[in-house]
Amino acid sequence: MTTVTGSGRQPRHVATIVDSGLDADAVLARVGNTPLVPLNVLSRGLGSTVFVKLESENPGGSIKDRTALSMVRAAERSGELQPGGTIVESTSGNTGIGLALIGALTGHPVVVVTGDSISSEKLEALNRYGARVVFTDWSAPSDSPQNARAVAARITAEIPGAWRPLQFDNPANPRAHYEGTAPEIWEQTAGRVTHFVAGVGTGGTITGNGRYLKEKSGGHVEVIGADPYGSVYSGGHPGQILVDGVGNSWPKPDWPKVFDRGLLDRFLRIPNNEVYTTLHRMLNDEGLSLGPSSGLTVAAAVRVARAAPHGSVVVAIAPDTGSNYQSKAFNPVWLADNHIRLAADLAED
Ligand SMILES: Cc1ncc(COP(=O)(O)O)c(C=O)c1O
Fold first, then answer.
1. Which atom of ligand 1 is nearest to the CA of 291?
2. Closest residue (by CA) to atom 15 of ligand 1?
3. Number of C-beta neighbours around residue 217 at 10 A
4. How many angstroms does the Cα of residue 317 sit away from the middle of ligand 1?
């Protein structure tokens, strides 16, 4: 049952998977081992190959299934999370969906504290996986009782045996990529990968993959962070970030503990028009329905491939599916409201 507090947004009621009798182990086995596919159209004439790691193919539709599974299993092993114990996390999106799915499959109730800007599709996914959703003011400062972390802490204290994964601090987050995503990339490219591109939210993806790929290649793989406008990671001014799940507006002392900036060779800051034009071209030219942060990483990967030595092998992470963004990234009204122009529109001017 979904509980919504402090918001008029009541998700539609749909069947949840919790009591559906599905084979949990079979679904858990489908987390990870995602396909690595080459770009065919967007990479024409670049002289290098660009591969996209399709994290949209995880059962919950995003890379965060890996993170959620890794954190839950680690907490079960350490005893922090007992059988049937409740998982409580404050998250604006995919980590909540991943935890809701993994919680449903491993017998843990899940409470997700989130803000009003969450897309209706993500809210429905949380509902489908049986999570309890608590709304709060996402912009409330850290000393406010409405702050999402403070609300999550309060709920955790109220529920006996409840546990918070705290993905920004949890070493099991980057470990999911060090032990899973990165060895897959190494194997799928037969060790030929030369450049790795990912967005940075918690930093778990780029830290875990970057560390493994640097180690395996003797430091040869170049690790590049793709950053949206409005994020301070790449040295910009803090501002509105229009790419879900990535970037950061906090000053450096408050950057996530799991993010090891020292592993990155550089950041590329990509304008929103380029992010969304690339995202739409991924759908129209490559037949891949992905989320906005995939537009960001692929746009960066194409830039990298254009400048790299002939024959380079560039791998970009595509963190999630496009189906959770129909009301935003693929909606002309949302794009216009946010002053985003696609290249096709720009060409018509
Ligand atoms: C859509 C999307 N892309 C990219 C990321 C960034 O991944 P990480 O938190 O591992 O840096 C996230 C994280 O939540 C995300 O939701």
1. 1
2. 245
3. 16
4. 10
Taking a C-beta distance cutoff of 8 angstroms, is the pair 93, 99 a contact?
no
Distance 265 CA to ligand 1 centre (A): 19
**Active-site residues: which are they?**
64
Domain-wise residue ranges, the chain: 39-57+181-348, 64-158
pLDDT score for 16:
56
Are the beta carbons of 32 and 181 closer than 8 angstroms?
yes
Q: Is the pLDDT of residue 31 over 50?
A: yes
pLDDT at 19 over 80: no
CB atoms within 10 A of CB 252: 9
| DSSP three-state, residue 244 | coil
User: CATH second-level architecture of 64-158?
Assistant: 3-Layer(aba) Sandwich (3.40)
**With 60 as the cut, is the pLDDT of residue 12 above it?**
no
Under 8 Å between Cβ of 100 and 2: no
> Binning pLDDT at 50, 70 and 90, where does residue 308 land?
very high
Give me the CATH topology for the region 39-57+181-348. Answer: Rossmann fold (3.40.50)
Atom 7 in ligand 1: residue holding the nearest Cα? 201
- For residue 310, report the distance from its CA to the centre of ligand 1, in Å: 30
Task: Decide if 39-57+181-348 and 64-158 have a common fold.
Answer: yes
- Judged against a pLDDT cut of 90, whether residue 6 lies above it is answered with no
Average pLDDT over residues 257-269: 98
Residue type, 124: E
Closest CA to ligand 1's atom 13: 245
Q: Which residues line ligand 1 (CB under 6 A)?
A: 64, 93-95, 199-205, 244-246, 291, 293, 319-320
